[in-house]
Design brief:
The chain is mostly helical and about 300 residues long. It has two domains: about 1-210, Cation efflux protein transmembrane domain (Alpha-lytic protease prodomain-like); about 215-290, Alpha-Beta Plaits (2-Layer Sandwich). It has eight helices and three strands, in the order H-H-H-H-H-H-H-E-E-H-E. Strand 2, helix 8 and strand 3 form a beta-alpha-beta unit. Helix 4 (about 110-140) packs antiparallel against helix 5 (about 140-175) and helix 5 runs antiparallel to helix 6. It starts with a helix and ends with a strand. It is a multi-pass membrane protein. InterPro entries: Cation_efflux, Cation_efflux_CTD, Cation_efflux_CTD_sf, Cation_efflux_TM, Cation_efflux_TMD_sf, CDF_Transporter. This is Cation diffusion facilitator family transporter.
Length: about 300
């Protein structure tokens, strides 16, 4: 069910990006709207980004094997990192185009271009909310990256809508200066998209470098471990994200006179406790150290 929901979301995103790319470029060419053409080219990059996320999610869903005993979860994180790079490149392109437009004579605005930008804005906002909701529910890095990609498009569509709208108002009331609202809005949005790409890329990089989960999560795992009566000491407790799931590693002190069977039962009980309370934990590795009461 989880795989079906995530794949449906990514397919809807891919199809939407293809349709919006075609609409923006065609309408942009017909209306000579440079901002809409630029937004369409940005959307073409989104097609590549979404296809990358889809491929990474397919790989990450594969079960563990001999070569990848911890599973393929990081493929999804790698895909999210690539999406961040594509977003960053798109923001630089949009910024360059917007700055260049400031030094060119403003073009004539068309109502059809404004309508296309508004439709894109509404469509992408719906896709962002839908994809992010599923991505967070499934803890899917690929879907969350795709949702942020939609959010970047929302920013771009806002810029296009505001820019074209100001130009239409300027044409109607003979305020030529308003025609430059398009490139100014584009510059602002390019910075917003670049910031979004940087934050997304940094988060993916942290996971790839096996950064620890938050101290709050670590303390939650520790509390569950301490609730086991036989545990006398936590020598070490670590946890890291591995794509859409988490791996927990613990070294624990237990009475040294316990049998191997008793130790095995303790380990199994700890694993069940943590996984029952935290469904995103896929594996709990426990090493037991002997503990003796001080004389």
């Amino acid at each position: 069910m989880k795989k079906t929901a995530s794949m449906l979301a990514i397919w809807i995103s891919l199809a939407s990006n293809i349709v919006l790319t075609a609409i923006k470029i065609i309408v942009g060419l017909l209306s000579s709207s440079q901002v809409l053409i630029a937004d369409g080219i940005h959307n073409a990059g989104d097609v590549i980004a979404t296809a990358t996320a889809y491929s990474a999610m397919r790989v990450s869903s594969k079960p563990a094997d001999l070569d990848h005993p911890y599973g393929h979860g990081k493929a999804e994180v790698l895909g999210a990192f690539i999406v961040a790079i594509i977003l960053g490149a798109a923001s630089i392109y949009m910024g360059y185009h917007a700055i260049h437009a400031l030094f060119e004579p403003p073009g004539k605005a068309h109502l059809i271009a404004f309508a296309a930008a508004v439709i894109s804005l509404i469509w992408k906002q719906i896709l962002y909310v839908y994809t992010m909701r599923i991505g967070r529910r499934l803890n899917s890095k690929g879907l969350i990256a795709t949702a942020y990609d939609h959010l970047a498009d929302v920013y771009a569509s806002i810029a296009a809508s505001v820019g074209i709208g100001l130009a239409l108002i300027g044409d109607h009331f003979s305020y030529s200066i308003l025609a430059y609202g398009d490139p100014v809005a584009g510059i602002i949005v390019s910075f917003l998209v670049l910031k979004l790409a940087f934050e997304m890329g940094r988060e993916s990089f942290d996971v790839l470098m096996e950064r620890s989960v938050s101290s709050v999560q670590i303390e939650q795992y520790a509390a569950l471990i301490r609730s086991v009566p036989e545990i006398k000491r936590i020598d070490r407790l670590r946890a890291r994200e591995h794509g859409h799931y988490i791996l927990v590693d613990a070294r624990l002190g237990v009475p040294g006179n316990l049998t191997i069977q008793e130790g095995h039962d303790i380990i199994r009980g700890i694993k069940q406790k943590i996984q029952s309370a935290h469904h995103d934990v896929d594996e709990v590795l426990v090493h037991l150290n002997p503990w003796y009461a001080e004389s």
